[in-house]
Amino acid sequence: MKTIFSGIQPSGTLTIGNYLGAMQQFVQLQDDYQCYFCIVDEHAVTVPQDRLKLRNNIRSLAALYLASGIDPKKSTLFIQSEVPAHTQLGWMLQSISYIGELERMTQFKDKATGKETVSSGLLTYPSLMAADILLYKTDIVPVGDDQKQHLELTRNLAQRFNHKFNDIFTLPEIRIPKVGARIMSLQDPTKKMSKSDEHEKGFISMLDEPKKIEKKIKSAVTDSDGIVEFDKENKPGVTNLLTIYSSCTGESVESLELKYKDKGYGEFKQGVANAVIDVLKPIQDKYDALIDSQELDDILDQGTEKATITANKTVAKAKKAMGLGRVI
Ligand code: TYM
């Protein structure tokens, strides 16, 4: 059986973008693959975090994974900082990463631009991400469009290590959904929807109440020509809403265009809001039942235990390949 690994940062409540670009595919994939899903809290601290908020976000993300349909009988769900092998291999991969290639990462440039101080962790973030993936002999990494460059670097680092030391790493393939790989901000549809956006109206959080979802979608930026048509370049707002609608319902964009052919944006937006609420409401109900439960802790404990066994084996091989420690 092939192996899947993916991670999400607990840097705020997940958006509908995280759900449609990543989480939704995770749930579908767990029937056919051996899956590892991670809460990458060590990645989150590469930018400043409030410790209490971070703790809450970690737990909340775990509950959201499960409420969205991640089944602990099929998948391993765990917290990155509870499996020390991630930072151990991360360090080894940092040691073969070049500063130049790390500086070229667009996510680094986006997050570093305009900041007075930037942590070195933000620069070496992709080496840790490569470690996450390579520890589990991952074949496929399901992610949104924005992670492409990090995946390419992961493959390069795996190849470099295999070539320099010993052939121990599997080269992972990326898997991006056909629709929903890049959900845009509702207020500026030329920008990616992000959970760390300062403007609350720009994103729909997975825990937003139905009324709030409706309000945000109704105030989403569109255009003045009143035609519901998919056209990324000239109609980015409507195109984004069509993408959200289609990803939530599974209905094709063409069929949605037809459905709203002679109708105004008001009716269209109501349709989008209903589609989003229909997807999120059952998840929110399950979330409420899970968030304070002992079951959640038990699942995370089991996940840590299972992930640690596999990850430690890879670290031992990588240490041996690099010549670290003593002969055992
Ligand atoms: P993060 O936490 O930013 O996002 C989690 C997942 O959601 C996807 N995503 C989106 N998809 C569609 N539209 C959007 N607007 C949108 N915003 C985010 C992301 O592509 C991602 O799949 N570096 C990763 C976390 C990570 C990781 C890993 C991922 C750490 N280690 C190993 C895969 C494998 C990140 O920042 O994701």
From TrEMBL:
EC class name: ligase
Catalysed transformations (reactions): tRNA(Trp) + L-tryptophan + ATP = L-tryptophyl-tRNA(Trp) + AMP + diphosphate + H(+)
PROSITE patterns reported in the protein's UniProt record: AA_TRNA_LIGASE_I
Cross-referenced Gene3D superfamilies: HUPs, Tyrosyl-Transfer RNA Synthetase
Highest taxon listed in the record's lineage: Bacteria
Residues noted as binding ATP in the record, renumbered to the chain: 9-11, 17-18, 144-146, 183, 192-196
Coiled-coil intervals: none
Positions occupied by motif 'KMSKS' region: 192-196
Binding site for L-tryptophan: 132
Keywords: Aminoacyl-tRNA synthetase, ATP-binding, Cytoplasm, Ligase, Nucleotide-binding, Protein biosynthesis
Listed InterPro entries: aa-tRNA-synth_I_CS, aa-tRNA-synth_Ic, Rossmann-like_a/b/a_fold, Trp-tRNA-ligase, Trp-tRNA-ligase_bac-type, Trp-tRNA_synthetase
GO MF entry, a single one: tryptophan-tRNA ligase activity
EC number: 6.1.1.2
Family: Belongs to the class-I aminoacyl-tRNA synthetase family.
HAMAP family per UniProt: Trp_tRNA_synth_B
Record function comment: Catalyzes the attachment of tryptophan to tRNA(Trp).
Protein name in the entry: Tryptophan--tRNA ligase
Origin species: Virgibacillus natechei
